[in-house]
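in:
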């Protein structure tokens, strides 16, 4: 076995400053994360609640409703840093039945922190972190008309908590430069069917953009389950399959980073798209072929969700801030990292062979096109294991042989590590599904 260099030791030993704005190293990510302010988060939660409702069909009055809330979010992003490119992402929707009962201008709010290759569409990579700012609530009583969209819907946990996290992360990260562009997006229309995220995902796909990871923060502040259980420590990460999907790699990455920076954190990966029968804004991006996960609280309170009781008093600012710190560490690590190596041939075949003896695991990959790659790490685990079991730093090369390890019983992957110690997502070697055959009978 080749020499193994633990990732963090490498990170700490190789951190060095560049001129001007630079990508943060491990110790700097720790400092950025510590800078996340519970007081700022609480101020955002109160402000978003002050609009009374953020339903997509709410009235447009000063200081009331979704339009005023969108204006405020846009201004709040713009006030953080001149480096953030802030805009509305608007869609004119026709009435089409169901929850889209009338025409509406759907307005996502976007803040882009440009990465190293921003403006070069072929090289720019996007990490998209998002929450939804629209709300919905059941009428306050049975006699209340169901089409009164000015019905109070404070949505403090669902999902002002995610929007507050976006603003606070944008504040602490916007002073640094990252390899990838970070898109902070406050979606509208989540509550009427993931509409804002679906339309944006389709637009970015049509534009040929590359998204390396989508992190959806939806309800990150509740600690009291409706069943009396309390949990202010765990966070759940939902990731759809199949088992070696890019979304699962993103979930494993999030868990590793979170538990590295926060040894007391408990990140529970749930290997399904979302809660049973429920949905989130990461899913439209996953359906377009990108990696996406939902990061959220451990326990939900169904008696408060989508009611007038989704208030600041019924959630925990400290837990929301703690989860924001965890997500900020994941986001900064991911955006600072180089792209993952491509582990397939030009024809799309996995570069995994049985050479040279015929009974070894011979891993090949394409060099990552960056001039600061320190080397690559190979990973492997049993097919039934949820997380990587073995890893080795193998230096700056594009092939590695694990002697006498069969490729049939393990999953293999490769990541790239740059000279600052930033590690990419792991690219897994995935076996192509066998096609169904058809035969002609005499
Ligand atoms: Zn929500």
């Amino acid at each position: 076995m080749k020499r193994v260099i633990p990732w963090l030791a490498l990170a700490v030993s190789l951190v060095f400053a560049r001129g001007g704005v630079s990508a943060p190293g491990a110790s700097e990510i720790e400092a950025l994360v510590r800078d996340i302010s519970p007081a700022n988060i609480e101020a955002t939660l109160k402000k978003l609640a002050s609009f009374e409702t953020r339903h997509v069909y709410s009235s447009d009055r000063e200081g009331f409703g979704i339009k005023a809330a969108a204006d405020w979010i846009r201004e709040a992003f713009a006030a953080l840093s001149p480096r953030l490119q802030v805009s509305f992402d608007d869609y004119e929707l026709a009435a089409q039945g169901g929850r889209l009962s009338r025409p509406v201008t759907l307005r996502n709010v976007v803040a882009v922190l440009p990465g190293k290759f921003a403006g070069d569409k072929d090289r720019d990579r996007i990490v998209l972190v998002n929450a939804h700012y629209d709300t919905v609530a059941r009428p306050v009583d049975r006699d209340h008309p169901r089409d009164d969209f000015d019905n109070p819907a404070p949505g403090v946990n669902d999902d002002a908590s995610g929007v507050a996290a976006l603003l606070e992360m944008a504040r602490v990260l916007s002073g640094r430069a990252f390899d990838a562009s970070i898109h902070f997006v406050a979606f509208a229309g989540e509550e009427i069917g993931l509409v804002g995220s679906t339309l944006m995902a389709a637009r970015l796909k049509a534009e040929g953009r590359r998204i390396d990871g989508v992190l959806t923060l939806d309800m990150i502040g509740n600690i009291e389950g409706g069943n009396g259980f309390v949990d202010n420590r765990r966070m759940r990460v939902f990731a759809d399959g199949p088992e070696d999907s890019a979304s699962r790699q993103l979930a494993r990455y999030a868990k590793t980073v979170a538990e590295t920076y926060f040894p007391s954190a408990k990140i529970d990966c749930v290997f399904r798209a979302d809660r049973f029968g429920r949905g989130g804004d990461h899913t439209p991006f996953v359906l377009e072929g990108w990696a996406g996960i939902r990061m959220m609280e451990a326990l939900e309170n169904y008696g408060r969700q989508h009611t007038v009781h989704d208030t600041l008093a019924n959630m925990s600012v400290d837990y929301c801030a703690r989860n924001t710190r965890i997500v900020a560490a994941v986001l900064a690590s991911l955006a600072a990292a180089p792209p993952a190596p491509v582990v397939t041939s030009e024809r799309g075949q996995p570069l995994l062979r049985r050479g040279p003896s015929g009974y070894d695991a011979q891993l090949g990959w394409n060099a990552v096109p960056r001039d600061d790659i320190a080397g690559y790490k190979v990973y492997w685990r049993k097919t039934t294991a949820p997380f990587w079991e073995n890893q080795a730093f193998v230096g700056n090369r594009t092939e590695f042989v694990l002697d006498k390890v069969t490729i049939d019983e393990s999953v293999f992957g490769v990541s790239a590590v740059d000279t600052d110690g930033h590690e990419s997502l792991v690219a897994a070697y995935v076996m192509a599904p066998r096609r169904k055959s058809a035969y002609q009978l005499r």
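note: Residues 317-336 form the longest helix (20 residues).
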